[in-house]
Design goal:
CATH class: Alpha Beta
Structural class: alpha/beta
Largest sheet: 7 strands, parallel
Number of strands: 10
Radius of gyration: 17 Å
Strand order of the largest sheet: 3-2-5-8-9-1-10
Distance between the termini: 29 Å
Shape: globular
Strand content: 15-25%
Helix content: 25-40%
CATH architecture: 3-Layer(aba) Sandwich
Order of helices and strands: EHEHEEHHEEEHEHEHE
Number of domains: 1
């Protein structure tokens, strides 16, 4: 049986240093993935995360034509809606870099009236990208980038919700999200925990208590604490000193 990965925590004095180091980490992951398989598969969540990725814009060595971007979760709204994770990523990142449009894998907004059909369609999108290239039961992303909410949720996996026990589907839908908008689709834990690398980003004093709860007391079972890549997967946290002030888990010096 595979042993879940223990988290490595990198804490930075400010968000600028964090963003720069996260960019270097992503580029290293990209380089290794492209060298092995000729592509780089990444899933991102919403919130403040896309803005943190803007440090990549000025970096050399980013092979945008090799990127295939998916969403760890998405709000079920039109893609140009202010609540859309895709719109935020488009405005802050994609519009400023030469990533091929066909390499950005969005939900099919024409299906938003039927959440089950929408989730199935996005799962089929993953199947097209992964099933013929990988033999694993679940897709193996090269990197999944996640944030964490003040309640410990990540992607659209919320405390106490039935989706926490979903073990079969790659993509699931939620229509009663405690955080608006209520209708969303999300990658499930089996997909997240089969990734080669998972990186969380959390900053600010508003995350002090929840980071302590997740990293120091994982037995509480908060959704973000359930992210533990199996086998040889990496689990890293990029946090700032303001957020990690109460974290007792030993912090590591960031090195590539």
């Amino acid at each position: 049986m595979a042993v879940p990965t223990r988290p490595v925590v990198y804490s930075f004095s400010d968000t600028s240093n964090l963003s720069d180091s996260l960019a270097e980490y992503i580029i290293k992951a990209q380089r290794e993935s492209v060298d092995k398989r000729g592509r780089f598969t990444v899933a991102i969540s919403g919130g403040s995360l896309p803005k943190t990725l803007t440090a990549l814009i000025s970096k050399s060595g980013v092979k945008w034509d090799k990127w295939h971007v998916f969403y760890a979760d998405e709000r079920v709204v039109p893609l140009d809606h202010e609540d859309s994770n895709h719109k935020l990523a488009q405005d802050t990142l994609y519009s400023k870099v030469p990533i091929p449009r066909e390499n950005i894998h969005t939900i099919d907004e024409s299906l938003q009236d039927d959440l089950e059909e929408l989730a199935d369609a996005y799962e089929k999108e993953l199947v097209r990208e992964f099933a013929q290239k990988d033999s694993a039961r679940f897709p193996v992303f090269d990197l999944i980038l996640l944030g964490v909410g003040p309640d410990g949720h990540t992607a659209s996996l919320f405390p106490g919700h039935e989706l926490l026990s979903e073990n079969d589907r790659w993509v699931a839908y939620i229509e009663d999200s405690p955080k608006p908008p209520p209708r969303r689709v999300t990658l499930t834990f089996p997909v997240i925990n089969h990734a080669a690398r998972v990186a969380f980003v959390a900053t600010g004093v508003g995350k002090v208590q929840i980071l302590h709860d997740i990293l120091d007391t994982p037995e509480l079972g908060l959704p973000a604490a359930r992210v533990r890549p199996v086998a040889s997967g990496q689990l890293v946290w990029f946090v700032d000193d303001a957020a990690s002030v109460e974290v007792k888990l030993a912090k590591s010096e960031f090195k590539l």
